[in-house]
């Protein structure tokens, strides 16, 4: 016998609230890692229970035509993170510093290496400066590997809107790449 | 490099505490429990003073089936148990040290200024349990004309408790006497 879909479990939890515990068991580890990638361990550990508490309280609004609850849960997580923007910004800047270090190590072996020391802090700033909706679409797509369809479900947007948000975010990052290339040429 | 790959370079895993998942689940399960059994916060909570709180808690559980809520314990810096809360049915009773807030245990005060009335589901079983645990019976188990079966007991420090269970509906015209006047 196949195990029930998330939609079936959530629907059952309307009458038997305890059934919702299974949704936690299935997805909490993914959501905890997601929150950790976005805002660090401390914030993530404090938010994961809250995320599922909110999901439980809103379970009546879950669209039962979707088999997986994962995009819906990501969407709740994204909203929660909006209240932790400062923690998120700190984590992102630290990630940029670490990425710079890693890239510098690789750069010695690679002629095509980017000027990571300049580039990554700018990428962090650019991601930070994106409008909330654009940043959310970009990070769900780039870091969580969600499909366009799943990002659309998470953010409760038409897929066309997700596409245009991602295009805007891409354009912004492409500018940085090109500027970085030029600065490297100039510095020689 | 593609622009999205540039964003991926900043993706970094956090060093997560594996126990965080258990703590998170506890938060969820508390919310679920709250929906299953709505929070009981009675409007009135009787506070009953005892000379020995620990002995009282043990007796109230054994004799009357009042269960302590462990998370509601209030312990002083020196480890002394200052206050506890017990639950029974949909009600709560505070169990505190005598002398605090002017309340005195009958054991040292020598008087009972009030009694507490408790409705139980199986009065005969409750009576047996109280007797077995050494409760002093102040008024024997019996039926009353107003349609209730009751007994009265004194706990280990002399507080007076009245336990009752409705046994039948009695029309007003037929009723003689009133509850509490037995």
Which SSEs are present, and which pair or pack?
The complex is a heterodimer of chains A (188) and B (182).
Chain A: H1 6-13, H2 21-57, H3 70-81, H4 85-107, H5 116-129, H6 132-142, H7 148-155, H8 159-187
Helix pairs in contact in A: 2-3, 2-4, 3-7, 4-5, 5-8, 6-7, 6-8, 7-8
Chain B: H1 3-8, H2 19-36, E1 47-50, H3 53-64, E2 67-68, E3 74-75, E4 81-88, E5 91-97, H4 106-109, E6 115-119, H5 123-132, E7 136-144, E8 148-154, E9 160-166
Parallel strand pairs in B: 1-5, 6-9
Antiparallel strand pairs in B: 2-4, 3-4, 4-5, 7-8, 8-9
Outline the structure in words.
The complex is a heterodimer of chains A (188) and B (182). Chain A has 188 residues and is mainly α. Helices cover 76% and strands 0% of the residues of chain A. Chain A has 8 helices and no strands. The longest helix of chain A has 37 residues, at 21-57. Chain A is elongated, with a radius of gyration of 19 Å. The relative contact order of chain A is 0.10. The model of chain A has no long low-confidence stretch (mean pLDDT 88). With 182 residues, chain B is α+β, with helices and mostly antiparallel strands. Chain B is built from 5 helices and 9 strands; from the N terminus they run H-H-E-H-E-E-E-E-H-E-H-E-E-E. In chain B, the strands form 2 sheets. In chain B, strands 1, 2, 3, 4 and 5 form a 5-stranded mixed sheet that branches. The longest helix of chain B is centred in the N-terminal third of the chain and has 18 residues, at 19-36. Chain B is elongated, with a radius of gyration of 25 Å. The interface between A and B is large, with 51 and 29 residues.
């Amino acid at each position: 016998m196949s195990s029930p879909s998330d939609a079936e479990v959530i629907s059952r939890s309307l009458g038997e609230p305890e059934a919702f515990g299974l949704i936690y068991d299935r997805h909490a580890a993914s959501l905890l890692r997601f929150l950790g990638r976005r805002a660090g361990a401390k914030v993530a550990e404090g938010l994961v229970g809250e995320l599922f508490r909110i999901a439980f309280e809103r379970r009546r609004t879950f669209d039962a035509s979707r088999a997986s609850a994962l995009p819906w849960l990501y969407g709740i997580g994204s909203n929660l993170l909006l209240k932790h923007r400062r923690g998120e910004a700190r984590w992102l800047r630290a990630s940029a510093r670490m990425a710079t270090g890693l890239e510098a190590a690789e750069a010695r072996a690679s002629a095509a290496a980017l000027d990571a020391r300049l580039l990554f802090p700018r990428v962090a700033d650019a991601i930070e400066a994106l409008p909330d909706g654009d940043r959310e679409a970009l990070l769900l797509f780039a870091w969580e590997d969600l499909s366009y369809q799943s990002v659309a479900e998470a953010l409760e947007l038409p897929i066309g809107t997700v596409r245009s948000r991602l295009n805007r975010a891409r354009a912004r990052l492409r500018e940085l790449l090109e500027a970085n290339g030029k600065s490297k040429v100039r510095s020689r | 490099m593609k622009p999205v790959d540039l964003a991926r370079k900043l993706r970094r895993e956090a060093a997560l505490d594996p126990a965080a998942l258990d703590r998170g689940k506890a938060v969820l399960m508390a919310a679920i429990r709250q929906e299953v059994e709505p929070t009981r916060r009675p409007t009135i909570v009787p506070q009953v003073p005892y000379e020995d709180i620990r002995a009282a808690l043990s007796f109230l559980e054994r004799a009357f089936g009042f269960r302590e809520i462990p998370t509601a314990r209030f312990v002083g810096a020196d480890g002394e148990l200052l206050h506890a809360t017990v639950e029974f049915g949909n009600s709560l009773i505070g169990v505190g040290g005598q002398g605090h807030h002017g309340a005195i245990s009958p054991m040292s005060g020598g008087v009972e200024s009030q009694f507490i009335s408790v409705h139980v589901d199986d009065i005969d079983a409750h009576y047996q349990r109280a007797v077995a645990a050494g409760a002093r019976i102040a008024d024997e188990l019996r039926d009353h004309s107003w349609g209730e079966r009751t007994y009265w007991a004194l706990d280990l420090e002399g507080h007076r408790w009245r336990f009752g269970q409705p046994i039948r509906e009695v029309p007003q015209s037929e009723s003689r006497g009133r509850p509490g006047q037995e």
